[in-house]
């Protein structure tokens, strides 16, 4: 699905859902302090609710290709803003990246120190090792 089209379809769905939520909010207000003269308004709101659900149902085929990580639903279930999911993922990735970089740096230093020590104790063998690996430069 084309990214621009997917964005517009998602925006349409978002608009429909926002209108649906607002309609539910208004129905809650009408019902919580129900007055008989408000019956017609309540009926209109309930009809708008049904129409809104029908519109959401029509839009579902346009957004079926959109994949949502299951963790986003956990955010929603826990009352958190699902937009924070991306921020948290980036922060976790940066933290993991720093950890991996630290490990790479530690292994690089270990390798350099090991080669220095091996060169001091086994210079001939290390020369053969470097020739096999194609690494002819002396260790520092």
From TrEMBL:
<protein>
    <recommendedName>
        <fullName>Mediator of RNA polymerase II transcription subunit 10</fullName>
    </recommendedName>
</protein>
<dbReference type="Pfam" id="PF09748">
    <property type="entry name" value="Med10"/>
</dbReference>
<dbReference type="InterPro" id="IPR019145">
    <property type="entry name" value="Mediator_Med10"/>
</dbReference>
<comment type="function">
    <text>Component of the Mediator complex, a coactivator involved in the regulated transcription of nearly all RNA polymerase II-dependent genes. Mediator functions as a bridge to convey information from gene-specific regulatory proteins to the basal RNA polymerase II transcription machinery. Mediator is recruited to promoters by direct interactions with regulatory proteins and serves as a scaffold for the assembly of a functional preinitiation complex with RNA polymerase II and the general transcription factors.</text>
</comment>
<keyword id="KW-0539">Nucleus</keyword>
<keyword id="KW-0805">Transcription regulation</keyword>
<keyword id="KW-0804">Transcription</keyword>
<keyword id="KW-0175">Coiled coil</keyword>
<feature type="coiled-coil region">
    <location>
        <begin position="3"/>
        <end position="30"/>
    </location>
</feature>
<comment type="similarity">
    <text>Belongs to the Mediator complex subunit 10 family.</text>
</comment>
<comment type="subunit">
    <text>Component of the Mediator complex.</text>
</comment>
<dbReference type="GO" id="GO:0016592">
    <property type="term" value="C:mediator complex"/>
</dbReference>
<dbReference type="GO" id="GO:0006357">
    <property type="term" value="P:regulation of transcription by RNA polymerase II"/>
</dbReference>
<keyword id="KW-0010">Activator</keyword>
<dbReference type="GO" id="GO:0003712">
    <property type="term" value="F:transcription coregulator activity"/>
</dbReference>
